[in-house]
Design goal:
Elements (H helix, E strand, L loop, with lengths): L10 H4 L3 E2 L2 E2 L4 H6 L22 H9 L5 H13 L7 H7 L6 H13 L3 E6 L4 E5 L8 E7 L4 E8 L4 E2 L8 H14 L8
Antiparallel strand pairs: 1-2, 3-4, 4-5, 5-6, 6-7
Bound molecules: zinc ion.
Zinc ion binds next to helix 4 and helix 5.
Length: 196
Amino acid sequence: MKKEDKIEISDKKIKRPLKKGLREFDDLRDAISSMEEHNRNFYFKPVLGYGVKLDASTLNKITRIECNCSDFLQNHGDFMKSMEIRFVSKHTATKLAELPLHPIILLLLRNKAKHGKERYVMLSENEPIILGFVSFVKLNWINVYHYDNKRDVAIRFSFNPFENKWSYGKLPPDGKTVENKIMTLLQQTFLQAERF
Ligand SMILES: [Zn+2]
C-alpha cells in the first residue's frame, strides 16, 4: 500500500481502546462510519442466484413461497425485485434452504432461519469467504462462511478477532489462510491499529 493510499483515521476512532493491536469497536455503525475510504459498498448483499443458474422450476417455487409475518409483508416486494437474502423472513429462509442453491447461500439461509437478520461482508470472492455480523453491537464473534471449491463443501465457523480464536477451538481446513485474510480485512477497514 502506498503511503498516500493509507486510510485516514478519525479522532473518534483514535480514542478507541486497542486490544492485541486491533482497535476495538463496540458498535459496527461507528466502525463503518469511521472508515473514510472503505465504507461505501461495505456490505455484501447476496442473492439467491449466487453462483448458480436458477431454473424455471426453482424460480416458480421461489415465487410461490409465502408467509404471514410482518417482515415478509414489508419486504416481499423488494425480495421479488432483487432476490436478495436480506429481504427474506426467518420463516421463508427455512423453505428457501430446501431449493438447489449454492452451498454457501444455503448456509446463509439456514443461519438466518435460526438466528434472524445478519449483515454480510464478502472477504474473498474466489473461494468464497463471507463474514456475517448478526448484530451491530456484538462484534466479538463473527460468522465465517467458507466454501471449499475442491470439496464442494460449505462450512460456517465463528471467529473472535480480538482473542484470535475460532469457536470450539477448531480451525477450518486452510484455517490459517482464512484467519490471515480476516485479520488483514479487519485491519485494513474498521480496526486500523495505529495512526501513522
Ligand atoms: Zn415470515
